[in-house]
Amino acid sequence: MSIEEIQEEIIDEFSGFDDWMDKYQLLIDLGGEQEPLPEQYKVESNLIDGCQSRVWLQADLTPEGLVHFQAESDALIVKGFVTLLIRVLSDHTPDEILNADLHFIEEIGLKEHLSPTRSNGLVAMLKQMKLYAMAFKAKQG
Asked: Which residues contact 110 (CB under 8 A, 6 or more apart)?
């Protein structure tokens, strides 16, 4: 499934809720469904700078040339954010990730309902994912 198709799927899921408390609950539920990050990846070098909560992000390049992300956070709502980002960006090529226009964040109303610190954290997570994609692209030559 393309990045665009995944974004449309997420927009559809969130459009079923009018109340922001319900949308927050969906984010928390999504984070709760995420596989825990293996302990060996919960290291200082995987912590994302700029997040108020602790967020670990692990990225690997698969033999097929796709970037596979795994992450975890100690805050439920943040774990939901990173789960959405992984759902959209993981298992795509570095170019697809770098060229992605992530409009779903605004379309589901997430941007306008986040505190400035949470918004900064979301930007930091996305920036780190794109940096990994850039590094893998350079590595592929």
From this structure: 23, 81, 122
pTM, entire model = 0.92
Cross-strand pairs, 56: 47, 72
Residue 115: Cβ-neighbour burial (10 angstroms; 0-12, 13-18, 19+): exposed
Q: Is-catalytic flag, 51?
A: yes
DSSP 47: B
Contact criterion met (CB below 8 Å) for 120 and 50: yes
Q: Which of 30, 51, 55, 126 is catalytic?
A: 51
Please tell me the distance from the alpha carbon of residue 47 to that of residue 59, in angstroms, as a whole number.
12
Query: Domains in the chain, start-ordered, CATH in brackets?
Result: 3-140 (3.90.1010.10)
Q: What is the pLDDT of residues 34-87, one digit of tens each?
A: 889 999 999 999 999 877 789 999 999 999 999 999 999 988 888 999 999 999
